[in-house]
Amino acid sequence: MEADISFIGLFLQASLLVKFVMLTLLGLSIVSWAVILQRRKLLTAAKTDALKFEDKFWSGVDLNKLYQELSARQDSNTGLEALFVSGFKEYARLNKLNGRVPEAVMDGSYRAMRVSLSRELEKLETHLPLLATIGSTSPYIGLFGTVWGIMNSFIALGAVENATLAMVAPGIAEALIATAMGLFAAIPAVIAYNRFSTQVEKIEMSYANFMEEFSSILHRQAYSEKEQA
C-alpha cells in the first residue's frame, strides 16, 4: 500500500494528461531555478562592479586616462563603465565639432548615456518576464491537472457500487500532486521576480544618479573650455 501512494507510484498510476502536466511543471521548475541562479549571479556582479567603478571614478583619477583605459577593453565594459565610455566618447567627439556650443555637446553626451543605460537595463531585465510568467501560470497548470485527475477519479467511482476511502484516496492524492507541483514551481519564481525587480530598480537608480553627476562634471568642463577658448 505504501508503494501505491508514494510520489513515484502515484505518478505512474496517473493518467497520461496528468503525467504530462506534472512533467511540464517539473520542467518549468528547473527552468525557473536556472534563471534564478543566473540572474542572482549577474545582479550581484552588477552591484559589485558599480561600487568598484564609483570608488575609482571619485578617487580623483584623470578622466582622460580612465577613458583610454576603458576604451582599450571596450567590448567588456558593462554597467557604469559602459555609461562613462559612451558619454565621454560623445563628449569628446562633439566638443571638437561644437566646442563653442556647450549645450549641444551636453545634449549629445547625455543622449549617448541614455542609450547605453537602456542597453544595460535590458541586460539586467533579461528573463525576468519568464520568471513572472512561470510564477503566474504554474498554479493554474497544476490546478488543471488536479481537476482532470479528480474528475477521472469520480468517473471511475461511478462505475463501482461500493466505494471506499481506500479506493478514493489514491486518485485524489494523485490529482493534488499536480497542484503541489504547480505551487512548488510558482512560489520561488514569484519571490525571485519580486526580489530581482527591486534590485534592478536600485541599480537603475544608481546608474541614473551617476549619469546626473557625470553630466554635471562634463557641463562644468565644457563651459571652462569655452571660456579658455
UniProtKB/TrEMBL annotation:
The chain crosses the membrane at residues 16-37, 140-160, 172-193. The keyword Cell inner membrane applies. Residues 79-207 form the MotA/TolQ/ExbB proton channel domain. It is found in: Cell inner membrane; Cell membrane. Part of the Tol-Pal system, which plays a role in outer membrane invagination during cell division and is important for maintaining outer membrane integrity. Belongs to the ExbB/TolQ family. PANTHER family: PROTEIN TOLQ, TOL-PAL SYSTEM PROTEIN TOLQ. HAMAP family: TolQ (MF_02202). This is Tol-Pal system protein TolQ.
